[in-house]
Design a protein that fits this description.
Layout lengths: L1 H32 L8 H21 L7 H26 L1 H4 L1 H6 L6 H16 L1 H13 L2 H6 L1 H24 L3 H14 L15 H4 L4 H13 L6 H25 L3 H4 L1
Helix pairs in contact: 1-6, 2-3, 3-6, 3-9, 3-10, 3-12, 6-9, 9-12, 9-13, 12-13
Length: 268
């Protein structure tokens, strides 16, 4: 009887968390795109414009690394940009989510973790209706296999895990250190410049590669490019490397958030 009651309580908590998450995600999207003509598709416009810019400047120089095809360079740059943009927007919005809702948390008892999670989920929705259909179409055209389209979900899952883990970590740290947004802008820039977004990973000097290997976004970008552009079956080694980095960062972020959250209310 006690076990049955406990299961019912757990289910009610999960259902309440899910309903609250839906409300927060809808609120985030409505506030973000109120009065906007393109709505969520603005998130796709940025990588498209940046891809055109990079292609105009670097396309002829780096095309040789992509089968002497500027088209392949364009697709590779777009793939890298959607990853870094998703990471930047998700984690930057998650950073301030707990502090921004401090007044609400002081009035109502809510699961604190739902706020950074809602920011990541809102960006997942944008990605699903914006960039993902383009990536899926590219993968299907190049590979002519539905397996590659389905395989896209694995490095994207890794990206979500990385963003959620970093989101938990920075949202918790921001409660204690209000200067964090200024420092985090630098961190995002370093991650962007150390990711093979507008340049091929092959041009990186061997002595620098071990340091760039610490960047959790690099294996995600390389895995997505292999699946979408190569036309070959998904490389399981790249996928596993991306998933491993995602799992480690998510576990680290969630552990820190869980350890520190009991101190939040004193500082909000």
């Amino acid at each position: 009887m006690t076990l049955s009651i406990q299961k019912s309580l757990n289910w009610l908590q999960i259902r309440r968390y899910w309903e609250l998450l839906q409300v927060l995600v809808m609120r985030n999207l409505k506030v973000r795109y109120r009065g906007s003509l393109l709505g969520v598709y603005w998130s796709l416009l940025n990588p498209l414009i940046m891809t055109a810019l990079y292609s105009a400047i670097f396309g002829a120089t780096f095309a040789s690394y992509y089968g002497n095809s500027i088209v392949n360079y364009v697709l590779a740059a777009f793939t890298g940009l959607v990853v870094i943009n998703f990471f930047s927007s998700s984690t930057s919005q998650a950073l301030s989510s707990v502090v921004n809702n401090g007044a609400l948390l002081n009035k109502i008892r809510l699961p604190v973790s739902v706020f950074p999670v809602s920011m990541v989920v809102a960006n997942i929705f944008q990605f699903a209706v914006g960039a993902f259909p383009l990536l899926a179409a590219i993968a299907l055209i190049n590979s002519k296999s539905i397996l590659n389209v389905l395989a896209l979900l694995l490095p994207l899952l890794s990206l979500i895990l990385v963003c959620a883990g970093v989101g938990f970590l920075v949202s918790a740290l921001y409660v204690f250190f209000r200067d964090l947004p200024y420092f985090y802008e630098l961190v995002v820039f370093v991650l962007w410049i150390s990711s093979p977004v507008f340049y091929p990973a092959a041009i990186v000097p061997p002595q620098v590669k071990p340091f760039l290997g610490l960047n959790p976004l690099s294996p995600i970008i390389e895995s997505l490019r292999q699946i979408t552009l190569s036309g070959n079956l998904p490389d399981l080694n790249l996928i596993w490397g991306a998933l491993l980095s995602g799992i480690i960062i998510f576990a680290l972020g969630w552990t820190c958030f869980h350890m520190w959250r009991h101190q939040f209310m004193d500082l909000l």
